[in-house]
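User: structure tokens for this one?
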Amino acid sequence: MISPFPDEGDTYPHVAYFAKWLKCKASVRWVRIAERGFRVDQLLESTLLAGDVRLSVRTGTQVRTDWSAVRKAARECDMLIAVDFMALVLAHLVSSKPVIFWSLDFISRDEARYARKINQLWLALVRRALLRHKKVIVQDADRLLALAGSLGIDTGQLQPFYLPVSLPPVRVNEAFPVKSWSGKPRVMQIGGLNAWRSHTDFLLEQYRIGHNRFELLLHGIIGSDIAPQIEMLKPKPSLSEGLVACESIPEVVRQCSAGFLGYRPSDEQFFQIKNASGQLVEFLRCGKPVLSMGANNLVGFLEREGVGCAVSNSTEFFGAVEKIHADYPRFSQNAHNLYEKYYNFDKYSGNMLDYLERVANSHSRSQT
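Assistant:
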């Protein structure tokens, strides 16, 4: 397993949980690499093109270290699972063993950086690797279509396994069911707390003007662009920084009555977010309704499923908070039902194991 993420912690909890599950089913070598591979243009500009010799050497050394670690692990395994672009390319270049590409993020066609020459060269290498191995784990058919389109590949050339961002159930006595909610609403945002990738600044403004109407809870990594705004708030919101074990995240989430999703980017890969949002899954599996802000396919989905509301301004925000808490048991029950319908990892684990075994066995047969 080649990944830019650790096999524990809450940066990408579903990756950490997958690692834990996989280690119970197979002998796993986890190789953590430094780069995900979709910021190659920035990496190049900040090193070679900027003339920063020291940073260039350090970057080159890290790539060589990753290369060596992947090559060594590949000698001892039956197959490789590569998380995102850099892992896929490394696995493709160092080994003839089967490689399964696990796609979390990608460069979509409507992003400004997509047309840059360095990225086109990089995507050509990714395309070559994926066409050779063909097997891809991706969140749903819409994201597969967007991923394949960004690489100039027909989806019929690939062999997908659809795996939404998914997590195991929490223990019943920890978080669910929530029969009612008394007292002031408690709205929580988790994940990256910033204003360049999230509408955290909007949420902070609602708290500033309406802290008497709801409590604000924040958990995650605070961006430098948002830290001064948090510092100026009075009263201060409840804040927990740093990473926790993925098993401990429900302990954090169960403190709130509703979650806030504030995805700011509107490009193709962020529009197709409903099966790719770890934040959404964390709230739903604890029976927490959600408020969502941003141009993505969560907007109508949440309201159709009766688990929350889309908001775009202050009036809608406070109206949604009141609407959810006026009928809290129903919203909470719907949230948990939606988790069970789409995002419970137990629904996919059996088929996933069969998929991995088929890949390994097909390679073994081809060798004999």
